[in-house]
């Protein structure tokens, strides 16, 4: 099989996947492995946003700064004064394969997937138009087009050159100064990455702290970490307008003040990429999420499936890939109303979505926040604890972190866990397993953490609970 073989031969497939990012790759890989002739339609680069403009390059930008900060927290480790920005950007370029997707295409071809270049658009029942050609699916079309930045309606913004998330992760030079609008994950990660690379960064947040969707203590700790890196935080203010002159961008704020920088990064959220997709003919609105059941089947259209950001369920690469595996399994097996926690349903979307914010300190969370659990009507007990164990003391001098465990008192199982502190991401999977497995706190007591590791915080949480 080869790339775009459909251009020369049979245009009928068992499955057509629109969108060749990680989610589409997983869906296509699953159906191809199941013996179904599968086309993967991609308008830009196979590997998608995550590989070239999101997960991989952003973490490549962040990691060197984290390593330097970690070394500084351990006396006796020789460290330099600052990062080598050119080397960091060169390594970032290598992680994106210099924005060349040939390696991803080779993987797809080797997996038995036929790659079709071009923008896919639904034109009717089981039909997809790509560059004037019409492809037909015998069994299913799976939409995995992801999401795009949500641009605010801000006076002057359209007239000023500015960064979105793509520009922020692919820039080849460090700006002398950067204004970041938005205190979500992209905003805080990019604020810290560029600050540590030498840019003077100002972060503008409309609320009282960044990361408003997480527990408040997590946002507070991240705010402290940003300030330690020299980031100026402007909280509780909204942007009212943008202007630009002579290589500088100025953001006007609701309190009458303004902030300026060489570059402006607008990081105010994302929305499903359902524009120019043909969803209107099936009763959906362009720009809105496609509603799906847990197998990924789109509401009211028995042959149409979707996975990932385009569904609006959990805008995270790993969760989209999980949903894609469920969709692929459901299409291969023809599953109808499968039981929860089987391979063809994305059950965890509702109860156990893990997420890491890769700042320093890191934030790692899974399940519900306290507010979400109470809003759901659960009788919960919340256990809060400073992360202060032998493992954290050895890990870094002055280690500062916090943990929260939320217990459903009726079932005595965990429904939410949040860690915030240096290198807490590696604690997250244990919490995810505990929530997915509905392990009682009494049983969890017998999962003995190794000493001396930061994981010993689990023992302290359970002791604080009363075991």
From TrEMBL:
Its cofactor is FAD. FAD binds at residues 59, 120, 145-147, 309. GO terms for molecular function: dihydrolipoyl dehydrogenase (NADH) activity; flavin adenine dinucleotide binding. InterPro entries: Class-I_Pyr_Nuc-Dis_Oxidored, FAD/NAD-bd_sf, FAD/NAD-binding_dom, FAD/NAD-linked_Rdtase_dimer_sf, Pyr_nuc-diS_OxRdtase, Pyr_nucl-diS_OxRdtase_dimer. Residues 13-319 form the FAD/NAD(P)-binding domain. Residues 353-458 form the Pyridine nucleotide-disulphide oxidoreductase dimerisation domain. This is Dihydrolipoamide dehydrogenase.
């Amino acid at each position: 099989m080869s790339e775009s073989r459909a251009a020369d031969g049979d245009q009928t497939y068992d499955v057509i996947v629109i969108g060749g990012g990680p989610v589409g790759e997983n869906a296509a890989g699953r159906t191809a492995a199941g013996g179904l002739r599968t086309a993967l339609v991609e308008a830009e680069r196979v590997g998608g946003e995550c590989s070239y403009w999101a997960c991989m390059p952003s973490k490549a930008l962040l990691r060197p700064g984290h390593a330097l900060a970690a070394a500084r927290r351990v006396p006796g480790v020789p460290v330099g004064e600052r990062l080598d920005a050119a080397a960091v950007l060169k390594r970032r370029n290598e992680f994106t394969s210099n924005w060349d997707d040939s390696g991803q295409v080779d993987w797809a071809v080797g997996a038995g997937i036929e790659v079709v270049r071009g923008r896919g658009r639904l034109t009717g029942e089981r039909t997809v138009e790509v560059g004037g050609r019409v492809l037909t699916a015998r069994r299913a079309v799976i939409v995995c087009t992801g999401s795009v930045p949500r641009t605010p309606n801000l006076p002057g913004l359209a007239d000023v050159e500015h960064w979105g998330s793509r520009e922020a992760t692919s820039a080849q030079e460090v700006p002398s100064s950067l204004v970041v609008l938005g205190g979500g994950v992209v905003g805080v990660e990019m604020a810290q990455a560029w600050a540590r690379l030498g840019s003077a960064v100002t972060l503008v947040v409309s609320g009282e702290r960044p990361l408003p969707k997480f527990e408040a203590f997590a946002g507070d700790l991240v705010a402290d970490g940003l300030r330690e890196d020299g980031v100026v935080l402007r909280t509780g203010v909204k942007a009212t307008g943008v202007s630009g002159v002579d290589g500088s961008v100025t953001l006007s704020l609701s309190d009458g003040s303004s902030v300026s920088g060489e570059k402006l990064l607008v990081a105010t959220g994302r929305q499903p990429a359902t524009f120019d997709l043909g969803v209107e003919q099936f009763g959906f609105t362009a720009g809105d999420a496609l509603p799906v059941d847990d197998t990924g089947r789109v509401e009211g259209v028995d042959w149409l499936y979707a996975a990932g950001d385009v569904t609006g369920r959990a805008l995270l690469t790993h969760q989209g890939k999980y949903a894609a595996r469920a969709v692929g399994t459901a299409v291969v097996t023809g599953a109808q109303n499968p039981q929860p926690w089987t391979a063809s349903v994305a059950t965890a979307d509702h109860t156990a979505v893990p997420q890491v914010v890769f700042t320093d300190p890191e934030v790692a969370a899974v399940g519900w926040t306290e507010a979400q659990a109470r809003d759901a009507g659960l009788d919960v007990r919340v256990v809060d604890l400073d992360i202060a164990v032998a493992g954290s003391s050895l890990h870094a001098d002055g280690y500062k972190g916090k943990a929260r465990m939320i217990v459903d008192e009726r079932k005595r199982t965990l429904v939410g866990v949040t860690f915030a502190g240096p290198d807490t991401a590696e604690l997250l999977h244990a919490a995810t397993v505990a929530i997915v497995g509905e392990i009682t706190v009494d049983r969890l007591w017998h999962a003995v953490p190794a000493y001396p590791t930061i994981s010993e915080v689990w023992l302290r949480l359970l002791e604080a609970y009363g075991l």
